[in-house]
Specification:
Radius of gyration: 16 Å
Largest sheet: 7 strands, mixed
Bound molecules: S-adenosylmethionine
Number of domains: 1
Helix content: 25-40%
CATH topology: Rossmann fold
CATH superfamily: Vaccinia Virus protein VP39
Structural class: alpha/beta
CATH class: Alpha Beta
Order of helices and strands: HHEHEEHEHEHEE
Number of strands: 7
CATH architecture: 3-Layer(aba) Sandwich
Amino acid sequence: MPKPYTPNDKWSQKATAEGYRARSVYKLIELDEKFRLIHPGMTVLDLGAAPGSWLQYTAQKVGPKGTVIGVDLTEIEPIEGAQTFVADITDNKALEKILPAHVGLILSDLAPKTSGIQDIDQWKSIELSQAVLAVARERLKPGGVCVIKVLRGADFDEFLRDAKKEWADVRTFSAKASRDRSKEIYVLLVL
Ligand SMILES: C[S@@+](CC[C@H](N)C(=O)[O-])C[C@H]1O[C@@H](n2cnc3c(N)ncnc32)[C@H](O)[C@@H]1O
Protein backbone atom coordinates (compact mmCIF):
# COMPACT_ATOMS: atom_id res chain seq x y z
CA MET A 1 0.00 0.00 0.00
CA PRO A 2 1.46 3.44 -0.86
CA LYS A 3 1.93 5.75 2.12
CA PRO A 4 -0.53 8.68 2.32
CA TYR A 5 0.66 12.14 1.28
CA THR A 6 2.05 14.12 4.20
CA PRO A 7 2.94 17.71 3.34
CA ASN A 8 5.41 18.04 6.18
CA ASP A 9 7.45 14.95 5.34
CA LYS A 10 11.14 14.40 6.08
CA TRP A 11 12.26 15.84 2.71
CA SER A 12 10.31 19.07 3.26
CA GLN A 13 11.74 19.42 6.75
CA LYS A 14 15.28 18.75 5.45
CA ALA A 15 14.80 21.37 2.68
CA THR A 16 13.70 23.98 5.21
CA ALA A 17 16.62 23.14 7.53
CA GLU A 18 19.15 23.35 4.67
CA GLY A 19 17.76 26.57 3.18
CA TYR A 20 16.32 25.10 -0.02
CA ARG A 21 13.06 26.45 -1.39
CA ALA A 22 11.55 23.05 -2.21
CA ARG A 23 11.87 19.38 -1.30
CA SER A 24 12.38 18.58 -5.00
CA VAL A 25 16.04 19.60 -4.65
CA TYR A 26 16.75 16.12 -3.25
CA LYS A 27 15.57 14.54 -6.48
CA LEU A 28 18.09 16.64 -8.41
CA ILE A 29 20.81 15.76 -5.90
CA GLU A 30 20.06 12.05 -6.38
CA LEU A 31 20.17 12.48 -10.17
CA ASP A 32 23.43 14.43 -9.94
CA GLU A 33 25.04 11.87 -7.64
CA LYS A 34 24.07 9.00 -9.95
CA PHE A 35 24.80 10.57 -13.35
CA ARG A 36 27.39 13.30 -12.49
CA LEU A 37 25.35 15.90 -14.37
CA ILE A 38 26.53 19.27 -13.08
CA HIS A 39 30.12 20.53 -13.36
CA PRO A 40 31.88 23.84 -12.69
CA GLY A 41 31.68 26.31 -15.58
CA MET A 42 28.69 24.66 -17.29
CA THR A 43 25.72 26.36 -18.94
CA VAL A 44 22.48 24.92 -17.53
CA LEU A 45 18.84 25.64 -18.40
CA ASP A 46 16.16 24.81 -15.83
CA LEU A 47 12.67 24.72 -17.37
CA GLY A 48 9.82 24.94 -14.88
CA ALA A 49 12.17 26.27 -12.22
CA ALA A 50 9.98 27.96 -9.58
CA PRO A 51 10.31 28.34 -6.66
CA GLY A 52 13.98 27.67 -7.39
CA SER A 53 15.53 24.87 -5.33
CA TRP A 54 17.11 23.29 -8.42
CA LEU A 55 18.50 26.71 -9.36
CA GLN A 56 19.96 27.12 -5.85
CA TYR A 57 21.76 23.77 -6.05
CA THR A 58 22.86 24.18 -9.68
CA ALA A 59 24.19 27.73 -9.23
CA GLN A 60 26.37 26.53 -6.34
CA LYS A 61 27.71 23.61 -8.38
CA VAL A 62 28.52 25.44 -11.64
CA GLY A 63 30.22 28.22 -9.67
CA PRO A 64 31.07 31.75 -10.84
CA LYS A 65 32.26 30.64 -14.31
CA GLY A 66 29.02 28.83 -15.07
CA THR A 67 25.68 30.10 -16.36
CA VAL A 68 22.34 29.06 -14.91
CA ILE A 69 19.05 30.16 -16.45
CA GLY A 70 15.65 29.36 -14.96
CA VAL A 71 12.30 29.76 -16.72
CA ASP A 72 8.83 29.46 -15.23
CA LEU A 73 5.28 30.76 -15.63
CA THR A 74 5.68 32.04 -12.08
CA GLU A 75 8.13 34.73 -11.00
CA ILE A 76 11.16 33.34 -9.15
CA GLU A 77 12.63 35.26 -6.21
CA PRO A 78 16.24 36.23 -7.06
CA ILE A 79 18.92 33.55 -6.58
CA GLU A 80 22.61 34.37 -6.52
CA GLY A 81 24.33 32.99 -9.62
CA ALA A 82 21.12 32.36 -11.57
CA GLN A 83 19.20 34.40 -14.15
CA THR A 84 15.45 33.90 -14.10
CA PHE A 85 12.69 34.65 -16.59
CA VAL A 86 8.92 34.46 -16.59
CA ALA A 87 7.84 32.65 -19.76
CA ASP A 88 5.83 29.73 -21.04
CA ILE A 89 8.23 27.06 -22.26
CA THR A 90 5.84 26.27 -25.12
CA ASP A 91 6.13 29.86 -26.39
CA ASN A 92 8.99 29.67 -28.92
CA LYS A 93 9.06 33.41 -29.58
CA ALA A 94 9.52 34.21 -25.90
CA LEU A 95 12.21 31.54 -25.52
CA GLU A 96 14.16 32.78 -28.56
CA LYS A 97 14.91 36.01 -26.71
CA ILE A 98 16.10 34.46 -23.46
CA LEU A 99 17.75 31.11 -24.10
CA PRO A 100 21.38 30.75 -25.16
CA ALA A 101 22.73 28.12 -27.60
CA HIS A 102 25.42 25.51 -26.76
CA VAL A 103 23.85 24.45 -23.50
CA GLY A 104 25.51 21.58 -21.61
CA LEU A 105 22.53 20.51 -19.53
CA ILE A 106 18.77 21.06 -19.73
CA LEU A 107 16.75 20.22 -16.63
CA SER A 108 12.98 19.98 -16.55
CA ASP A 109 10.99 19.43 -13.40
CA LEU A 110 7.94 20.84 -15.22
CA ALA A 111 4.60 19.89 -13.76
CA PRO A 112 1.34 20.70 -15.55
CA LYS A 113 -1.49 22.30 -13.62
CA THR A 114 -3.31 19.21 -12.43
CA SER A 115 -6.92 18.63 -13.49
CA GLY A 116 -7.50 15.78 -11.05
CA ILE A 117 -8.09 13.45 -14.00
CA GLN A 118 -5.03 11.21 -14.13
CA ASP A 119 -5.07 10.50 -17.90
CA ILE A 120 -5.34 14.20 -18.74
CA ASP A 121 -2.54 15.17 -16.33
CA GLN A 122 -0.28 12.47 -17.73
CA TRP A 123 -1.00 13.56 -21.29
CA LYS A 124 -0.22 17.20 -20.38
CA SER A 125 3.07 16.02 -18.87
CA ILE A 126 3.97 14.28 -22.15
CA GLU A 127 3.07 17.46 -24.07
CA LEU A 128 5.35 19.54 -21.83
CA SER A 129 8.09 16.92 -22.23
CA GLN A 130 7.78 17.21 -26.02
CA ALA A 131 8.20 20.98 -25.68
CA VAL A 132 11.37 20.42 -23.62
CA LEU A 133 12.72 18.07 -26.28
CA ALA A 134 12.08 20.77 -28.92
CA VAL A 135 14.18 23.20 -26.86
CA ALA A 136 16.85 20.54 -26.36
CA ARG A 137 17.11 19.84 -30.11
CA GLU A 138 17.85 23.53 -30.72
CA ARG A 139 19.95 24.44 -27.69
CA LEU A 140 21.94 21.43 -26.50
CA LYS A 141 25.53 21.14 -27.63
CA PRO A 142 26.83 17.76 -28.89
CA GLY A 143 27.13 15.37 -25.96
CA GLY A 144 24.78 17.59 -23.94
CA VAL A 145 22.29 16.03 -21.54
CA CYS A 146 18.58 16.65 -21.00
CA VAL A 147 16.72 15.44 -17.90
CA ILE A 148 12.92 15.52 -17.96
CA LYS A 149 10.37 14.67 -15.29
CA VAL A 150 7.48 12.76 -16.87
CA LEU A 151 4.27 11.46 -15.30
CA ARG A 152 3.96 7.83 -16.32
CA GLY A 153 0.71 6.88 -18.01
CA ALA A 154 -0.71 5.33 -21.16
CA ASP A 155 1.50 7.42 -23.49
CA PHE A 156 4.76 6.99 -21.61
CA ASP A 157 6.01 3.84 -23.37
CA GLU A 158 5.54 5.44 -26.78
CA PHE A 159 7.30 8.60 -25.59
CA LEU A 160 10.26 6.51 -24.43
CA ARG A 161 10.33 4.38 -27.60
CA ASP A 162 10.41 7.49 -29.81
CA ALA A 163 13.09 9.09 -27.66
CA LYS A 164 15.28 5.98 -27.96
CA LYS A 165 15.08 6.22 -31.77
CA GLU A 166 16.30 9.82 -31.74
CA TRP A 167 18.76 10.19 -28.84
CA ALA A 168 22.15 8.54 -28.43
CA ASP A 169 21.42 7.29 -24.92
CA VAL A 170 18.14 7.27 -22.96
CA ARG A 171 17.75 6.14 -19.34
CA THR A 172 15.05 6.36 -16.70
CA PHE A 173 15.45 7.06 -13.00
CA SER A 174 13.00 6.95 -10.08
CA ALA A 175 14.06 9.23 -7.25
CA LYS A 176 13.75 8.13 -3.63
CA ALA A 177 12.65 11.67 -2.78
CA SER A 178 9.59 11.34 -5.07
CA ARG A 179 6.44 10.82 -3.08
CA ASP A 180 5.56 7.14 -2.68
CA ARG A 181 2.29 7.43 -4.55
CA SER A 182 3.81 9.52 -7.35
CA LYS A 183 3.79 8.44 -11.00
CA GLU A 184 6.78 10.62 -11.77
CA ILE A 185 9.92 9.31 -13.38
CA TYR A 186 12.98 11.16 -14.68
CA VAL A 187 14.11 10.48 -18.25
CA LEU A 188 17.73 11.26 -19.04
CA LEU A 189 18.65 11.78 -22.69
CA VAL A 190 22.11 12.30 -24.17
CA LEU A 191 22.48 14.00 -27.56
C1 LIG B 1 7.47 21.04 -9.46
S1 LIG B 1 7.62 22.72 -9.90
C2 LIG B 1 9.35 22.91 -10.13
C3 LIG B 1 10.14 22.91 -8.84
C4 LIG B 1 11.56 23.30 -9.05
N1 LIG B 1 12.32 22.24 -9.69
C5 LIG B 1 12.24 23.63 -7.74
O1 LIG B 1 13.09 22.85 -7.34
O2 LIG B 1 11.96 24.67 -7.14
C6 LIG B 1 7.00 22.73 -11.54
C7 LIG B 1 6.94 24.09 -12.19
O3 LIG B 1 6.60 23.96 -13.57
C8 LIG B 1 6.04 25.20 -13.95
N2 LIG B 1 5.37 25.13 -15.26
C9 LIG B 1 4.32 24.35 -15.61
N3 LIG B 1 4.00 24.57 -16.91
C10 LIG B 1 4.88 25.48 -17.39
C11 LIG B 1 5.08 26.08 -18.68
N4 LIG B 1 4.28 25.80 -19.73
N5 LIG B 1 6.09 26.98 -18.81
C12 LIG B 1 6.90 27.28 -17.77
N6 LIG B 1 6.75 26.73 -16.54
C13 LIG B 1 5.77 25.85 -16.33
C14 LIG B 1 5.09 25.52 -12.81
O4 LIG B 1 4.76 26.89 -12.78
C15 LIG B 1 5.91 25.05 -11.59
O5 LIG B 1 6.55 26.12 -10.96
